[in-house]
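Checklist before submission:
- one chain only
- standard amino acids only
- sequence pasted in full

Submission:
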Amino acid sequence: KRRYDEDLKKGLNVSYEEIRNDIIRRDEVDSGREADPLKISQDAVFIDSSEYTLDGVTDMIINIIKTKEKNNV
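Returned file contents:
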């Protein structure tokens, strides 16, 4: 959605589905490549930001960092 909105602001005439399919295709290629494939690290924290504002996501990230810092002290 973010990329679709950015492209609209730039005046590009692409559909949401085209952008979505392009991202899916790119991620499949990146995940399947032989050299340095795209993979999620074991200690990664996944945040689905689809339904949140920038401020909401920022707050989530800050809380995760604070929690990790507390647990590592």
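Reviewer check: Helices lie at 2-9, 16-32, 54-72.
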